[in-house]
Design a protein that fits this description.
5-stranded mixed β-sheet, about 25% helix, globular, D-amino Acid Aminotransferase, Chain A, domain 2, 9-stranded mixed β-sheet, D-amino Acid Aminotransferase, Chain A, domain 1, 2 domains, 6 helices, disordered N terminus, 14 strands
């Protein structure tokens, strides 16, 4: 398959999965892991696997073209390298073969702690996505639109039974009232995020659970995690303050080196 680049905002609805990496100092962080994740997800949803070399190349070329060092013609000036984000998806239109599409955007510094609110959208549950980061999920799109418009950093998506599943951009980790480290269970349909995977590799004590609103009302700490932002403490849930703690800092140490 020939890698391709499409402009952000393309209205066509595509079917497939994607992964999003941070570009720091001209380097795509965790390039091999993002490539493996995209290939794993393609297998899970029944798509032919993209070639590893093609995935890595589109990441690197897009990062260099948009955030790498560049020299003006006839000048020795170099603006240097900038931090950015590159999303690469392996997807297709109905009836067409899949292809790689890269979408770059500038990296914007986020708040050191986040406020989250409950989304009006109901999480659709496991469906057919097999815990992949799927490109066409209305509940995610509605949540992201709300984040852009509102004064919040992330939304919480609950399923029809009132169980927390995930956010529009991230997975959640909760310190329960009893002091247990838990994350919403995969059988609810949440994305098996790379950020959460990295955290759990160093903290096998994090277990999966079905969390209700009551669990959140009584939790000791809550945090968000994804591969771009690492671990971010949450300081309010639906405008109710959440206690600050040291566990988010400890878990975030996993992202000290890319």
């Amino acid at each position: 398959m020939c890698p391709d680049t499409e402009a952000p905002g393309n209205p066509a609805r595509r079917l497939g999965s994607y992964t999003t990496a941070k570009v720091s100092g001209g380097r795509v962080e965790r390039l091999e892991r993002h490539t493996a994740r995209l290939r794993r997800d393609a297998e899970r949803i029944g798509l032919p696997l993209p070639q590893q070399v093609d995935v890595e190349r589109i990441f690197l070329d897009t990062a260099e073209r948009n955030f790498g060092s560049s020299h003006s013609v006839g000048s020795n000036h170099s603006p240097g390298r900038r931090d950015g984000i590159v999303r690469v998806e392996w997807s297709h239109l109905p009836g067409a073969p899949p292809k790689l599409i890269a979408t770059p955007r500038e990296y914007q510094a986020a708040a050191p702690a986040w406020s989250v609110v409950t989304s009006d959208a109901i999480h659709p549950g496991p469906e057919f996505r097999a815990n992949t980061k799927y490109v066409d999920v209305a509940a995610y799109d509605l949540g992201r639109d709300y984040i852009k418009k509102g004064d919040v950093d992330e939304v919480m998506l609950f399923d029809a039974q009132g169980r927390l599943v995930e956010g529009a951009h991230s997975n959640f980790i909760v310190v329960t009232e009893a002091g247990h480290l838990v994350t919403p269970a995969r059988d609810l349909g949440c994305v098996e995020g790379l950020g959460l995977t990295i955290v759990r590799e160093g903290h096998p004590e994090i277990r999966e659970a079905h969390l209700t609103r009551t669990d959140l009302d009584t939790c000791r700490e809550m945090m968000s995690t994804n591969a771009v932002r690492g671990v971010v403490p949450i300081i309010s849930i639906d405008d109710k303050p959440v206690p600050a703690g040291e566990i988010a800092k400890a878990l975030g140490a996993a992202f000290g080196h890319a």
